Task: structure prediction
Amino acid sequence: MATSFWDSLVAAIRYRIDHCPILGTSRWLADRLRRVALLVRPSSSTPPLTKEQHPMAVISLTDSDFTSIVEDAAGIVMVDFWAPWCMPCRMVSPTIERLGEQYSGKITVAKLNVDENMAVAERFHITGIPTVAIFKDGKLVNELVGVRPEAVYRGAIESALNPAPAVKTTSSSKPAGHSITVFSTPTCPWCARLKSYLNSQQIAFKDVDVSRDEAAATEMVRRSGQMGVPQAWIDGQVVVGFDRKKIDALLGLATAGAR
Result:
């Protein structure tokens, strides 16, 4: 039972770190305190989950094999970013595994321990766990942070498996003929959210990966004066970041001005 006590202590320390407004602004300091929190636990730390706890043989990812298993893979890969001390992660885990069983043969389900594999977690800006990320053909297409209802995860899977086709609209529905280019990178969470939003609205767009297209990146910066992504060109108008109100207004969506 000693392990349970130390796990609870570490979880309490981490909770205070994550909810402290001062530490939250210093990733370096918070990271160092997290490392100290791990050191207070005895060497017989929480063992890895057994096969019985992973009846569907969920793949365990590491920094060294993440690219080959996820980013170089064809199809859908759902990655659960978690840590042993995280109680919400344990709440989400059965749901993720159940969905993996139900979608067996259609998607791959994997887990990555962020404490042991910080490089990938930092590259994808994982600042809170649990985070469930959906990759399609190696690209991040959706990201869900925190504990969500099963229907939300199921909807994310369905959206990745069966993306809504781009449709031509009539004068009585959404305006047609928009010229939209989205500048993004594969590891940018807000890029994934912007593209997911456009897909949910059945808006066709051109996706440009500026990490691979230097000329496009240069032109993006020249026009906006900003280096960050996502950025979007909508009918000649530049939108920096996921500015939903401006995007809705430019596209004439019904949600324009809402909230």
Observations:
- The chain has nine helices and nine strands.
- The chain has three domains: 2-39, 59-161, 180-251.
